[in-house]
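wait is this the right file?? whatever heres the structure
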């Protein structure tokens, strides 16, 4: 129903068939249809009009509430009752774990079961993984901070692409490190410039997000990954491979960690592909002797992962629930992705199949000005400036990340596909205004 309403095959005011008639047509139990109609009413898709029947509802618009297209989180899973999944998961955790143990201090890096779960989770990307090299961390941001803190010294340079994850820029700024931009081409970071910059600035650490890159959605091909991995091996560079979106890509190449296992810290978080509330990420270490350095840095600002959430993540990975949940989320993400492509059109749009898009704005817009006008219209988006390496981190004449103003549009936070499509239409209406000074209604 929601898909048909979003596609305008069902329109406000259309009458739906009686529940019993629909159940017979679909050859399903009547209670199934009754529950579906109830859920559709809860989502404000349908309205009952007594003896007249059930009709497609008019869009419910709340102009006082922002619709968030700025936060990259996974969408609600298609066909899965999350409340039921959480109840079952916590029940299994309490059956297999002592409550006192869940509420006390734990060693950093996770238990053997947690590390085994991390190895299982990363097997899809990397093949068999040695669980002794896996650390369980309380989210990717804390893992990133610990890696920067342990692998660099104050004032050192970290090399990244001209548009990079804002979390890296925040970590570097607070820890007194400098992020320098290495220019890119259509395949990602250029190896020749990486070599030049690494030697010029005596850099030892490189940050890359090679699959469905945030924000550009670009995926680095296997040949470029192999080139960069070979260069890292030759120059003895360490790479932080932040890879939260690998599982959303239709045909993702093997991670950089596959090509240079002795030089890559591979970070895989559950927050971007399962649930942010799990607060669990896994780091595959390039070598066992680096673990104590990273754990020591991690303990300086967060003693341990939350035992309850880590235990739930471990339980779900071991019993297959995580895989089921992932399939539901991927199904919903791909459906939203296709809806967004149809709604926005292809012009100036980069879309690799994940949970965000990269959209070029018409020439008369400045990025931050558009963000402000969008907020006034009840829509939250993020402009290119949030991802740009600061000017002092760019070489003279270096590309600042592309021509013209762009925005990142996140697809997961909207409560429904219907809400998402309406938000995207309003966003495009705003972008197409001839003058940014026109009043937004």
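ok assuming it is, sequence goes like this
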């Amino acid at each position: 129903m929601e898909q048909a309403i979003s596609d305008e095959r069902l329109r406000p005011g259309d009458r739906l068939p009686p529940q019993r008639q629909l159940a017979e047509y679909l050859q399903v139990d009547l209670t199934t249809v009754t529950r579906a109609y109830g859920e559709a009413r809860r989502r404000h898709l349908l309205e009952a009009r007594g003896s007249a029947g059930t009709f497609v509802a008019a869009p419910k618009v709340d102009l006082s509430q922002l619709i968030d297209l700025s936060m990259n989180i996974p969408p609600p899973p298609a066909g899965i009752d999350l409340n039921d999944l959480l109840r079952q998961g916590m029940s299994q955790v309490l059956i297999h774990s002592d409550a006192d143990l869940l509420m006390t201090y734990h060693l950093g890096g996770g238990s053997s079961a947690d590390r085994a779960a991390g190895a299982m989770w990363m097997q899809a990307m990397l093949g068999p993984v040695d669980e002794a090299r896996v650390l369980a961390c309380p989210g990717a941001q804390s893992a990133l901070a610990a890696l920067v803190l342990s692998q660099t010294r104050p004032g050192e340079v970290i090399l990244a692409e001209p548009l990079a994850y804002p979390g890296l820029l925040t970590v570097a700024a607070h820890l007194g490190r400098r992020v320098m931009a290495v220019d890119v081409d259509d395949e990602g970071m250029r190896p020749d410039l990486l070599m030049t910059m690494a030697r010029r600035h005596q850099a030892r650490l490189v940050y890359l997000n090679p699959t469905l890159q945030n924000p550009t959605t670009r995926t680095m091909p296997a040949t470029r990954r192999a080139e960069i991995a070979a260069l890292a091996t030759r120059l003895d560079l360490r790479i932080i491979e932040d890879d939260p979106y690998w599982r959303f890509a239709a045909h993702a190449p093997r991670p950089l960690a596959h090509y240079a296992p002795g030089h890559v810290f591979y970070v895989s978080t559950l927050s971007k592909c399962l649930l942010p509330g799990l607060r669990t990420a896994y780091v595959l270490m390039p070598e066992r002797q680096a673990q104590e350095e990273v754990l020591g840095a991690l303990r300086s600002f967060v003693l341990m992962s939350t035992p309850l959430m880590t235990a739930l993540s471990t339980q779900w990975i071991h019993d297959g629930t995580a895989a089921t949940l992932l399939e539901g989320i991927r199904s919903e993400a791909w459906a939203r992705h296709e809806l967004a492509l149809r709604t926005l059109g292809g012009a100036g749009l980069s879309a690799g199949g994940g949970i965000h898009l990269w959209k070029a704005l018409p020439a008369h817009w400045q990025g931050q000005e558009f963000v402000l006008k969008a907020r006034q219209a009840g829509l939250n988006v993020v402009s290119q400036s949030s991802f740009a390496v600061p000017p002092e981190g760019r070489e003279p004449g270096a590309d600042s990340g592309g021509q013209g103003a762009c925005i990142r549009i996140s697809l997961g936070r909207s409560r429904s596909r219907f809400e998402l499509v309406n938000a995207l239409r309003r966003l495009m209406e705003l972008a197409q205004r001839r003058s940014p000074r026109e009043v937004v209604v």
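Residues 210 and 220 are 5 Å apart (CA to CA). so i think its the right one actually
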